[in-house]
């Protein structure tokens, strides 16, 4: 009985060690797999439906057409779109979400365009503040609220006004300014405005909107699509800047706003002293850009200034570098190893046109991403577990065979 128990225990232990040999590699070795695209921009289109916006039909058709144009609005999952209409409700003080928040993909863009086309013209007052609030609520309620770019784009004549029970222009402006402050506190990174022509608005309205609602506040001399890209909010006139051409205005807006260089994964955690790979996607006008040098930089954290492995224009790996070239999909990959121990790295990338390794004025920069390096219980790697496990198994099997031989000899003798 004791002999059978011992043999069974040895066999069980051997089986457990074999399980470790085959199971532990999944713990100790991280397979590098390109991540799915993540949302890097939340964009809310906030549309004025007041009675003074007589070109409402032109505007919504221009927006719907732009959403259907894959060269303007990328369908690779990096943009989330929300559409808000203000001036709704029984007396025109309200705002409502008419589409989204929706991540734009090949399967969702047409639904967004149809939602825009289906908007009905309210023809009431101009509660700009309520439009901003409803947009912020929708963006905050989205699972993508941690996106690095969170933009509200207003289409309005700028004449904030609510006439009911004694409330007028001053009160409506105060509500709009309060909504702007709430949006900034909620993490909205940019508020832009495009002025729609109307007979009710004047220069004083437009200056108020530019100086008190657009965020960050633009320079009056450089406010329509300012450079560097994203340095301030933008403020453009459909009439003066685009000759009243709504389609041209919307097209130019999307070309300016859409992420040109997006970096993922946005945030990850790994054990210390392992590798991490980031992926930059570069598009211009929605088209992937091939053979473009992208420089990656760890700008903060325990590995600040690190070099790593990139790829040259022919797709060959290059070590000890910060530069990697985009492939036909517009994607460049870069891998580095943690040598600084635990902590959090901040990583960014930029289109390095002159390949000098330095971010120069006018070069396109990506969003920043973070990498957390954490201490974890020491676990042998694949080679350690494999060698130790196999040695133990062979030793136990040999012991079992010898034991049985001795028993057999004793019985024969």
What does this structure look like?
By secondary structure, the chain is an alpha/beta fold. The chain is built from 10 helices and 17 strands. Strands 3-2-1-4-5-6 form a 6-stranded mixed beta sheet. Strands 8-17-16-11-14 form a 5-stranded mixed beta sheet, with no helix packed on it. Helix 5 runs parallel beside helix 6. The longest helix is centred in the last third of the chain and has 31 residues, at 382-412. The two termini are 21 Å apart.
Query: What structural class do you assign from the helix and strand content?
Result: alpha/beta
C-alpha geometry: elongated
Distance between the termini: 21 Å
Order of helices and strands: HHEHEEHHEHEHEHHEEEEEEEEEEEH
Rg from C-alpha positions?
A: 30 Å
Report the average pLDDT across residues.
81
Count of DSSP H/I helices: 10
Task: Give the low-pLDDT segments.
Answer: 15-34
Summarize the main sheet.
6 strands, mixed
Q: What's the β-strand tally? A: 17
Strand content: 25-35%
Order of strands, widest sheet: 3-2-1-4-5-6
Oligomerization category of the chains in this entry: single chain
Helix content: 25-40%
Summarize the structure.
With 413 residues, the chain is of the alpha/beta class. It contains 10 helices and 17 strands.
Secondary structure topology:
Elements: H1 2-23, H2 25-28, E1 41-48, H3 56-68, E2 76-88, E3 94-105, H4 109-117, H5 128-140, E4 149-156, H6 169-185, E5 190-195, H7 203-212, E6 235-237, H8 238-242, H9 246-257, E7 261-264, E8 267-271, E9 275-284, E10 287-288, E11 293-300, E12 308-311, E13 317-321, E14 323-325, E15 331-337, E16 343-351, E17 369-374, H10 382-412
Parallel strand pairs: 1-2, 1-4, 4-5, 5-6, 8-17
Antiparallel strand pairs: 2-3, 7-9, 9-10, 9-15, 11-14, 11-16, 12-13, 16-17
